Amino acid sequence: MAALDVRGLVAGYGPVQALRDVSLEVPEGTVVAVLGGNGAGKSTLLRAISRTLVFHRGAMTGGSVLLDGRPVHRLSAAGMVAAGVVQVPEGRQVFARMTVADNLRAGALGARGGRRAAAESLARVHELFPVLAGRARQRAGLLSGGEQQMLALGRALMARPRLLLLDEPSLGLAPLMSARIAEAVEEINAAGTSVLLVEQNAALALRLASRAYVLEVGEVTLSGTASALAASDEVRRRYLGVVDEDAAADTAGAAVGRPVLRRWSA
Ligand code: ATP
Description:
The structure is a single chain. This protein is α/β, with parallel strands linked by helices. It has a single domain, classed as Rossmann fold, CATH 3.40.50. The chain has helices spanning 42-50, 77-82, 100-108, 114-128, 130-134, 145-158, 175-190, 202-208, 226-231, 233-238, 245-255, 258-265, and strands spanning 2-13, 16-27, 31-35, 59-67, 70-71, 85-88, 163-167, 194-199, 211-216, 219-225. The strands form two sheets. It has a six-stranded mixed beta sheet with strand order 6-7-8-3-9-10, sandwiched between helices. It has a four-stranded antiparallel beta sheet with strand order 2-1-4-5, with helices on one face. Adenosine-5'-triphosphate is lined by residues 13, 16, 18, 36, 38-44, 56-58, 200.
């Protein structure tokens, strides 16, 4: 059974319909990616699952979200965290004026297991991101972008998620830092947490995920194993930036006047 099963999801913001009939599954223990350009509806999808659309004046108006086969789309956002589904929103939203330690402590609020579990989680987060232990007393706003992304991830882990929803974790990060974050996601997944990852960086997402979906203007247009999608012309052209060499040669030819050469040589 899939850990997460989204069926026929419809969601939007007032008159704006951002998602139409979106269905996807995250099998237990896997990393699943959702690719798509700006405005495709990726953040809306994660917000609908985490029940946080209401904070953005949005609403889910159709479909269902099942966790282990149990409908969860009527829970509150806090209820969803208690059920083990935790979102790391886009843009590294840490509490800038609070210390790193307090940010992590805040992540444990509402988590199951009490103080002992929180201490265990903290040890795990520090093991994963040693820099957060070193900077525990610093204000989070002073961390670099990459360190803030680590803190955002660490804070989510403090809630002991069984399913992590990641919104563009590599956004705005230098390649080396993106790679470090990707490595951390792999380690988190290897320790048993399922991951639904939304990314514009398709190369990174397809490396991490076993399956992926392509979302375009609120609808799933392609889905399959990550390797099948990475090999598909559509994904290569639109999301991996691989140029179709024949088409490129034709365009370049036209640009430098190859049609004229053709006429002359005919
Ligand atoms: P990006 O990669 O640019 O963040 P996205 O794929 O995450 O894009 P969403 O942010 O989910 O896309 O946006 C989907 C649609 O919903 C867009 O048309 C967007 O303008 C609209 N939208 C998003 N948030 C709101 C909001 N708070 N109020 C009104 N419309 C919104």
